[in-house]
Amino acid sequence: MPSSSYAVVAYLDGDLGKFLADFRTAVTPHHTHLRPHLSTLSPRKLKISEDEVIKNFSRNKFQAIKIEAGDVCSFRPASATVYLDLRSGQKSLWELNSQLASGPLAGKSDWPFVPHLTLAKLEDFKDVARVFQHARDRWHDYQGTRSFSVSELTLVREAKPGVWIDLASIHAGD
Questions:
Q1: Which of 65, 73, 156, 174 could be cross-linked to 150 through a Cys-Cys bond (beta carbons 3.0 to 4.6 Å apart)?
Q2: pTM score over 0.90
Q3: Is 84 in contact with 117 (CB distance < 8 Å)?
Q4: How far is CA 120 from the centre of its chain?
Q5: Residue 173 counted as domain residue
Q6: Inside any domain, residue 174
Q7: Coil vs helix vs strand at 131
């Protein structure tokens, strides 16, 4: 059996989380099972047991991080993903990523760490320009808050391609 990938995410709720979920539902309805989130540790395969992964993750301490969403961007040509970059909080997220990626949770990441909020992960590149423009228009019209606080982190495991399950959570200041 191939080893699973693990990642650490901060889920988004409120107006911004609803905006992200609604956009994803409209553009990529086959991905609606994925909750809006900010990855704080990129997916990676680990060489320790799941019990050890959970135990080591649970030992982490962190302070809440204030984040503000920025502009619509794309990872083209590396990936057919349209996302929101971050206007603030990146430095703290990089430090948190380094902390999480050290010791037992160290491993070769499946993707480089780039703090962002995914709007749509498309199957191929043919629709990226159209979805990008649609995202810019929707984001321009969005009237809700563009900021949030990362105060809870959740360790997740990929159960099967594209399906992630929650394993454990920690809170800021714990």
A1: 65
A2: yes
A3: yes
A4: 12
A5: no
A6: no
A7: helix
